[in-house]
Structures are given as structure tokens and as C-alpha cells.
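Lecture 7 notes: from sequence to structure.

We start with a single chain of 60 residues. Read the sequence below before looking at the structure.
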Amino acid sequence: MARKVKVTLVRSTIGQKPAKVKTVRALGLRRISSSAIHEENDAIKGMIASVAHLVKVEEV
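Now the structure, written as C-alpha cells:
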């Protein structure tokens, strides 16, 4: 069974480049403090790495 990670938006996407905003939205995050749980795979890890300055990641 794949490991799961909880991704939480901790900083606003205001002022970010459109690609970063779309990445945050694709992770299922809408507003600050919103969270989403994903299975950890290469695609999700890459998305998290590209917006690491905006999100907090915890293992579930």
C-alpha cells in the first residue's frame, strides 16, 4: 500500500506565477489552511516540490 501525505496550504497564492497557482489547485487546495490527502507518487512529489514554499506536508 502506498504511503499517504497530507498537504496543507499555508501561504497565499496571490502574486505567484499562474503555473504555481494551477499546481496548488491541482493538489486540491483552495484557501489557506485547506488540506488534501494524496498517495505519495512521483507526480505528487514533483507537484509538492514545485510549490514547497507555499505548502506544509505531513505523512498520514
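The chain has two helices and three strands. Keep this in mind for problem set 3.
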